[in-house]
Specification:
Main location: cytoplasm
Strand content: 25-35%
Keywords: Cytoplasm, Hydrolase, Nucleotide metabolism
Organism: Micromonospora antibiotica
CATH class: Alpha Beta
Largest sheet: 8 strands, mixed
Structural class: alpha/beta
Number of helices: 6
Number of strands: 8
Cofactor: a divalent metal cation
Family: Belongs to the Maf family.
Distance between the termini: 36 Å
Order of helices and strands: EHEHEEHEEHEHHE
Length: about 220
């Protein structure tokens, strides 16, 4: 499967981890921040919430894009939430909230869900799905929790942890795609592209990844 027009992928996320994951896979996206207020969206199931947020982010960016007839523009929206102990956990409200979460999560397991919505702007088509990965948390000490929260890292991410940063030392293992925990599943993205009659190889860039400023919309 190939595409006659040059492809442009716009990542509707300010997450550096998602962008780095794409770059490492040979894809150089444009980055635009959606501005969606995540706190205004509610759902009973973690899978439904992350997918709805991914849709809203992708659509918000798509609505403001200027497209041309000489390229095919795709917009990818992603959102992650942690399902733990019957609750849906996004980003912690503050350091105290992050500390309480880790005191509950240590030595236990949760499921990290990441919703993906891929919009083909010109053809007005859409493909979407949720990737889910089981995360096993280490039985970390109070001192380790305090030190981790003090770094600020858990305050900026769903579930109050990362796998590709300092928090990786506090995970005993996962069951599923590690990219899901980072915030973007490459195997799932490949499937969504196939749904739009494209191949992930169509997005491979011959240009070495470089620094790029995030351009907020609004």
């Amino acid at each position: 499967m190939s595409n006659s027009l040059p492809l442009r992928l716009v990542l509707a996320s300010q997450s550096p981890a998602r962008r780095k994951l794409l770059q490492a896979a040979g894809i150089e996206p444009d980055v635009l921040v959606s501005g969606v207020d995540e706190s205004q969206v509610v759902a009973d199931r973690a899978e439904d919430l992350c997918l709805e947020l991914a849709r809203l982010k992708a659509q918000a960016v798509s609505d403001r894009l200027r497209t041309t007839a000489d390229e095919r523009t795709l917009v990818l929206g992603c959102d992650s939430v942690l399902a733990f102990d019957g609750e849906i956990l996004g980003k912690p409200a503050d350091a105290a909230d992050a500390t309480r979460r880790w005191e509950r999560m240590r030595g236990r397991s949760g499921v990290l869900h990441t919703g993906h919505c891929l919009l083909d702007v010109v053809r007005e088509s859409r493909a979407e799905a949720v990737a889910s990965t089981v995360v096993h948390f280490a039985d970390v000490t109070d001192a380790e929790i305090a030190a981790y929260v003090a770094t600020g890292e858990p305050l900026a991410v769903a579930g109050a942890f990362t796998i590709d940063g300092l928090g990786g030392a506090f995970l005993n293992g996962i069951e599923g795609d590690p990219g899901t925990v980072v915030g973007l599943s490459l195997p799932l993205l490949r499937g969504l592209l196939r749904d739009l009659e494209l191949s992930i190889t169509d997005l491979w860039s011959k240009v070495a990844p470089g620094a790029q400023e995030i351009e907020p919309l609004g």
